[in-house]
Design brief:
It is built from 16 helices and 21 strands. By secondary structure, the protein is α/β, with parallel strands linked by helices. It has three domains: 11-97, Rossmann fold, CATH 3.40.50.720; 101-316, UDP-N-acetylmuramoyl-L-alanine:D-glutamate ligase (3-Layer(aba) Sandwich); 327-464, Alpha-Beta Complex (Protein-Tyrosine Phosphatase, Chain A). The protein is globular.
């Protein structure tokens, strides 16, 4: 735990008692603050009380002496309208901040890498931490990913905090100035929270604009919003801005000053005249072009933190990947199994389908708006689809005569049928891909439980068929 001493002997309200809220309450109390905690959810209040967190109803409280409101990132700050507790704080001229702001104000002697963007934040955060460890650095990884920032351990002075930052957290961390700030990409997301795309973009951009001139930012430049942000930052700072580009038409700005990936091969400006650093085709934990961008951004972070880039590039091939995100579960009898349960909409599944041919696709759940119509350009890659959940009938209509398909109903049936088909098929390098393009809530409480069930089923069926399933990319 990181003790927060900046509010010692002062009253601080903490609203929202999920993992980050509880961590915040404990960190403030350890630093000498008087904590006044609350959550609108009675079960969370009960759990907090059992954990020794003092409760105080903010709706009946006297805000006169409250120094700050520490708001959970999930509680509305501005849109669609401020939460009632935020309004109370504003009326008392009490600042509203988040746990990352507390971390920033503590001014620890360590380097901080903060990673944001619409897609790829979690993988890039984990990958950056993995590569730093491979280079011998003391590392703590958290924020929006996994461990709340104030639950992270204290590090030696040479250690690095690698923090995933959502737009909600950036909104609540006005003084965060990361030593390395990363903006991966931008596409419409959380519009209800930020008003419109311009508001969402402004929040993401703000984290980089807040940096000092001598701090480094890394920007993916393959989408127009990020490219514009890069150009503005590069013109203002005249250096310390690293562009990252991936794809068939690599942006020349990356070749001049940054890192780029061409057909899976990573290059870096200034490194042996742009010669290859590493070929990602052998990186089972980094499948697909979206993961190539994550890899390039992570290498840019390592370079900015003065780590040996060649050593870091070699370590990319050992990265296990994140569970449920293009997770290579393993192979049996030449059949490869990929767990992409995190793909809860068609955009996410699009990134999976482009990675393979001869796909035996497990798809379905609770459909999102638009269904899977947008995936039609990839139908030629699909040998057979097994449909599950509430969306099975709707998705069957979309597939029609273009893709052979079976309504399996549930995941257990789909996995059994998919493996039987794969073992009887003569196609080269068959892949069984769970990439549902739908939410899990019709049959599972979350995408993690759906992915875990897939993993268990694959392991069980491999034994049933007399096969030893080889270890996949993630354990």
């Amino acid at each position: 735990m990181i003790e927060i001493t900046t509010f010692a002997d002062r009253a601080v309200a903490v609203f929202g008692l999920g993992r980050s809220g509880l961590a915040t309450a404990h960190a403030l109390a350890a630093g000498g603050a008087k904590v006044l905690a609350w959550d609108d959810n009675a079960d969370r209040r009960e759990d907090a009380a059992k954990a020794g967190v003092p409760l105080d109803d903010p709706y009946a409280a006297d805000w006169t002496d409250v120094a700050a409101l520490i708001l959970s990132p999930g509680v509305p700050l501005t849109h669609p309208e401020p939460h009632d507790v935020v309004k109370l704080a504003h009326s008392a001229q009490c600042e509203v901040i988040g746990d990352v702001e507390l971390f920033a104000r503590e001014a620890l002697p360590n380097k901080v890498a903060a990673i944001t963007g619409t897609n790829g934040k979690s993988t890039t955060t984990s990958l950056t931490g993995f590569l730093l460890e491979a280079c011998g650095r003391d590392v703590a990884i958290g924020g929006n990913l996994g461990t709340p920032v104030l639950d992270l351990p204290t590090l030696d002075d040479d250690g690095v905090y690698v923090i995933e930052m959502s737009s909600y957290q950036i909104d609540l961390a006005p003084s965060l100035k990361p030593d390395v700030g990363v903006l991966l990409n931008l596409s419409p997301d959380h519009i209800d929270r930020h008003g419109d795309m311009a508001g969402y973009t402004a929040v993401k951009r703000g984290m980089l604009e807040n940096q000092s001139a001598d701090q480094i930012c890394v920007v993916g430049i393959d989408d127009p919003d990020c490219a514009s942000i890069f150009d503005a930052l590069a013109a203002e700072r005249m250096g310390n801005v690293i562009p990252v580009s991936v794809g068939n038409n690599v942006d020349p700005r990356a070749k001049a000053d940054g890192i780029w990936v061409d057909d899976g091969v990573v290059h870096m400006a200034g490194f042996e005249d742009g010669e290859a650093l590493v070929d990602l085709s052998a990186a089972l934990g980094l499948i697909g072009k979206h993961n190539w961008q994550n890899a390039a951004a992570a290498l840019a972070c390592l370079s900015a933190l003065d780590c040996p880039v060649e050593q870091a590039a070699a370590a990319l091939l050992r990265f296990p990947g994140l569970a449920h995100r293009m997770e290579n579960v393993g192979t049996a009898a030449g059949v490869r199994f990929i767990n992409d349960s995190k793909a809860t909409n068609a955009d996410a599944t699009d990134r999976a389908l482009v990675c393979f041919d001869n796909i035996i696709w497990i798809v379905g759940g609770r459909a999102k708006e638009g269904g899977i119509e947008g995936l039609r350009p990839h139908f030629g890659r699909i040998k057979h689809a097994f449909l599950i959940g509430e969306a099975a009938g709707e998705f069957a209509q979309t597939l029609g005569d273009d893709v052979a398909h079976t309504i399996a109903g549930d995941l257990d049936t789909a996995v059994t049928s998919a493996l039987d088909l794969a073992l009887s098929d003569q196609a080269e390098a068959p892949v069984v891909l769970l990439s549902p393009a739908a939410a899990s809530f019709d049959q599972f409480s979350d995408f993690e439980k759906r992915g875990n069930r897939f993993r268990d089923l694959v392991a069980g069926l491999a034994v049933l068929h007399g096969q030893d399933i080889s270890a996949g990319a993630a354990e």
